[in-house]
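Summary for the lay section of the report: proteins are chains of building blocks that fold into shapes. Here we show the chain for Thymidine phosphorylase and then a coded description of the shape we predicted for it.
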Amino acid sequence: MQMVDLINKKKYNQKLTAEEISFIVNGFTKGQIPDYQMSAFLMAVYFNDMDIEESTALALAMRDSGEVLDLTDIKGTKVDKHSTGGVGDKVSIVLAPLVAHLGAKLAKMSGRGLGHTGGTIDKLESIPGFKVVLPLDQFKNQVKEIGCAIVGQSGDIAPADKVMYALRDVTATVDSMPLIASSIMSKKLASGADAIVLDVKVGSGAFMKTLEDGEALSRIMVDIGKKAGKKVTAILTGMEEPLGHKIGNALEIYESVETLEGHGPEDLTQVVAVISGHLLKHAGVVKDYESGYKLSYDTLRNGGALETFYTFVKAQGGDVNFLKNKDQILTKTKTYEVKANVAGFLEKVDALNFGIAAMKLGAGRATKDDVINLFVGIDLHKKIGDEVKVGDTICTIYHEEKGLKEAVEIVNNSYVVGPHKIKLDLIKETIL
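The coded shape description reads as follows.
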């Protein structure tokens, strides 16, 4: 088997076998196939696409390039979720203790933030003492005993994806549906869960800007998961505005605690309940999604999962007293208020730009080597559809001087107050 022959095959839009795809992935990961040949192959895929069998073979080959977690000694159905990334997305932090409290087992590996999207691991690290690296035995024992654990993604998980993504990034082949889907699913399939819910964000603050693209990506990922023997559901959720009110690591922990206490923002509560409803159904905790959704929503609103969250944080070394006295988070930095100079209704909030503004303050990374400030960020007081009066505070910026002027300028150009009261569809579609 020669790489040049496989490049030629895909160049002429011929279907590759699983064996051929495995040869390509393994050869490139081991350094036996040079960058220039892999670049040619990726560009051929970009233009000629891959069908679902090829996409599945690619995901499985990348999965098998490294460690595949074996969670079979944990009784019951193990569940997981993945978000394609957005602004203010703290769903995993609320979801993990919720599904654990309700009887499911969530074993999750998460990543750090890069660019305008925040990372779950960075957010959890804003809790003093919280350990995001655990020995495998401890990770599994915690899932057995508490029902959930969230750790940083191991470097041994899908190493082929890392080297392939780095090459895609510099060859303009990132935005290929089969390559995106295979990349995401290779890591999810390596994480050992039996059932996965994919939260595919759609809108200005998401990687997928249109509903059509979100649907296309979701269907490929769901099909890959099913062909790999997993229960998979995709939820397409709106990212036209930030999720919840708070953007920034410790600020999002604050809002997660609020939500688990029973008085979190409606949009965040709803998204978590939707994902939890499907996971509870997959895990056999409830008979149908509707029952799972109601149980999840009601539990969030009555604060039933809060103690499980504290137990989860304590098990990973986190300071629970820090969370119980969460108002201190709001006093760690200076504040600046952005006020409305016209009256009406909030018609638009550019989620992408709000995420970029938070990154300018130091809440996110422009490069992987950047050091983030865990306590800076933005608290958006108004949501799309809310009435706005002259002098109302649109948002509070938590800062330490760095990037403040730039962030204020970005924010002032990233929302619109007008005469129309707009209602957004938060849950856009479910793909089973």
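Put simply, here is one thing we learned. The two ends are 38 Å apart (CA to CA).
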